[in-house]
Amino acid sequence: MRDIPEAFAAHLAGGVTTLCRCWSLRRRDGVSLGFTDHDRDLTVAGLVHEARTGLEAAEASAELGFAVSGGDVAGALSSFGLTEADIAGGLYDEATVETWLVDWTHPGTRLLLDLATIGEIRREGDAFVAELRGLTHRLDAERGRTYRATCGAALGDARCRVDLAPWRTTGQVTGVPEPATLSVALAGGFADGLFTGGRLTWTEGANAGFAADVRLQLGALLELWSAPPRPVAAGDAFTVTAGCDKRLATCRDRFANAVNFQGFPHMPGNDAVMRAVPGSDHALDGGSLFR
User: Which fold has domain 165-241?
Assistant: First the structure.
């Protein structure tokens, strides 16, 4: 049962209510933003909640047990808070959102309705819809090790133990043939494909501080999985780290790190019973072995 503050309960018991919704958003980098569907700005718990964003509540759901509850908030991208570049750059991924029901005549009289994190953000033109996920969605996250043929570690982490310094280099953009494709000049010589699946981090330019995954590297071309959130210009600098496809052969031959491989490459998979027996003369097509 929800405990309702005495002042808020008294307001609800009155003949007329003056209520609005406020959203307090806190990003992982420490930036806090406030939004409200009221027609003027409100200061709630020391944070100014902007009224000019057009933010409003959309569909919401609540579930019993451990099912993930959540909802949506919709609004317009504007200079007052949310911008398309920041969203595309991942600044709002896993941001915490508090939803408050507030008496706009006395903002100190409020009730916390929900605590959620931002999930998928859908954008169309100058509008967006942000998915709010309840706290139970964290129960879906993978914990511990899983039995699979490929490695479960991230390249260079505490389990992998590869020193990334020899596998990282700097570079500069020389051209942008496509929004997600970059012509680059890399410091040092590297084989084609070394940075496929790697990580690019911008150090200079409009995208400084943002990072992106490399889809493909062919010589002096780097193709990213998604276009950078802000315009890229010739001369923009970055660092890029080699990629790893999580296979034992790559771990052994490229990184000489098979001793730390965190997968189970010799574990038979679901298709083991369908494989032909080495040295067998039979077709193994499901027919009789004696005819």
Answer: Thrombin, subunit H (2.40.10)
